[in-house]
């Protein structure tokens, strides 16, 4: 789909909207592996594809580089970033720190409606027949857990870390039976939240995140040795 070149209107908000469209489209393409890791992106080709100016594409590249989806190198241009095993380990450690803190803030504010929504999402996750659907529902469950914390900046950071991690999660889930274990852990975490057992809930969440991280690190190490 092509989008109009809104930069010609001289409207800053329109220009930003066009950049946001390109950012969202490229991010989704990377997340769903429609653009492979290491693939180089040409600014002029992207501008033509989306019907926008190269200035807007530069803005999109800058944002996606900051988010960790793209890598910019002098004289080599921009390419889709490839997560190394070392980076995956670091991201999983950061996720554990940030998400456990968010849960710690969230538990005192949780209401019955929050628990009901979480349970509904877990039931949908059990019933989902596609890996992509399961990944979206997994993200939804975690977002619902942390939302009562009402810490906007923290939740934005968590979301960015999750998206970078999510690029590789589908391969981990397709190659292992970890999803079943992950679901059992989700339900344990939710039950501990209902009990307002903050320490045990945070400990269960930390182990849950790090276990997934360990699987991803092992998978990336195997692929790097191959």
Automatic annotation (TrEMBL):
Name used for this protein in its record: FCD domain protein
Molecular function GO terms recorded: DNA binding; DNA-binding transcription factor activity
SUPFAM superfamilies for this protein: GntR ligand-binding domain-like, Winged helix' DNA-binding domain
UniProt xrefs under PROSITE patterns: HTH_GNTR
Alphabetical list of SMART domains matching this protein: FCD, HTH_GNTR
HTH gntR-type domain sequence ranges: 16-83
Sorted UniProt keywords: DNA-binding, Transcription, Transcription regulation
Pfam families cross-referenced by the UniProt entry: FCD, GntR
Stored InterPro entries: GntR_C (IPR011711), TF_FadR/GntR_C (IPR008920), Tscrpt_reg_HTH_GntR (IPR000524), WH-like_DNA-bd_sf (IPR036388), WH_DNA-bd_sf (IPR036390)
Domain of life the protein comes from: Bacteria
């Amino acid at each position: 789909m092509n989008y109009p070149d809104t930069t010609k209107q001289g409207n800053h908000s329109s220009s930003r909207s066009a950049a946001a469209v390109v950012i969202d489209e490229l991010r989704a393409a990377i997340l769903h592996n429609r653009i492979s890791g290491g693939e180089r992106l040409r600014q002029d080709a992207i501008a033509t594809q989306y019907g926008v100016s190269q200035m807007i594409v530069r803005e999109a590249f800058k944002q996606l580089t900051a988010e960790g989806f793209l890598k910019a190198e002098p004289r080599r241009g921009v390419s889709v970033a490839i997560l190394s095993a070392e980076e995956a380990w670091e991201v999983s450690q950061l996720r554990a720190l940030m998400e456990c803190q968010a849960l710690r803030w969230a538990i005192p504010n949780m209401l019955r409606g929050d628990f009901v929504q979480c349970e509904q999402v877990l039931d949908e996750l059990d019933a989902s027949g596609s890996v992509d659907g399961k990944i979206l529902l997994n993200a939804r469950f975690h977002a619902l857990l942390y939302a009562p914390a009402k810490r906007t900046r923290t939740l934005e950071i968590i979301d960015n870390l999750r998206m970078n991690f999510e690029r590789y999660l589908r391969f981990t889930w397709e190659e292992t039976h970890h999803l079943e274990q992950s679901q059992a852990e989700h339900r344990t975490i939710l039950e501990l939240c209902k009990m307002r057992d903050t320490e045990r809930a945070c400990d269960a969440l930390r182990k849950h995140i790090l276990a997934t991280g360990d699987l991803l690190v092992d998978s990336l190490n195997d692929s790097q040795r191959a």
